Give the backbone structure.
Amino acid sequence: MPLPEHSPLGKASAYADQYDPTLLCPLERAPKRAEIGISAAGAPFVGADLWTAYELSWLNARGKPQVAIAHITVPCETPCLIESKSFKLYLNSFNQTAFASAQDVQARLRADLGAAVWHGAPQPGTVGVRLIAPEQFDQQSVHELDGLDLDRLDIECHTYQPAPELLRAHHDEAPVSEVLTSRLLKSNCLVTGQPDWGSLRIAYSGAQIDQEGLLQYIVSFRQHQEFHEQCVERIFMDLWTRCRPTKLEVYARYTRRGGLDINPWRTSHPMQLPAHTRTARQ
């Protein structure tokens, strides 16, 4: 299994235009999870990584180009995530390849992505793939994350590396249920250092979390280098261990890069997947 520094990230790459599933580069989740206290016994969350692929194209049987948007759902229980540049290179390999139908493209995506993210699993599962055809494009909505906007707070920020000590909860007061949002999440790519911009929604029940400290904590990721999925899991674990809510959901929608966006979602309790709706910046 390759390490992040051995992936295509940050390297000059040839762009294959004939279908090639070997371009996908899976990366193990376990090493980064171990850093934040998640043991091999399991995580205190379930969830998924919701990908959107905006640059998907192939040829039909007569050689005419076809286009679609793909929504991909990768369960967070998979042993691996997919390095995003390898995903882009893989999607580009469809460009000059003929497929009999959009259903065939969907089947290839499901099989290849499933094999990559479930690599090494004793009982491999599947991934979800849904194609949005051009006649459905104008039905795709843009909507900001619902909740109380933390960005309204006028705070001072001095820390730009993750600082869980900024998180506080009022355990001596009555418990609450809240949904809080921010557009100020920014982190950097683990390998290249390029900026990753995101919006964040945190829903929880339990002792009320201090909102100013929470916003300062979100801002503290600004110079941190980690993949999207790893940042969201770090945020979940810091809130879970320091604020001790009875229920917790953390959802981030990151802006796209290379025609792909990644939107990790983690929850302490089984619930319906969030709507796959992009924000204005995506």
In short: Helices lie at 30-35, 84-92, 102-117, 211-219, 228-242. Residues 102-117 form the longest helix (16 residues). The longest strand covers residues 46-59. The chain has five helices and twelve strands.
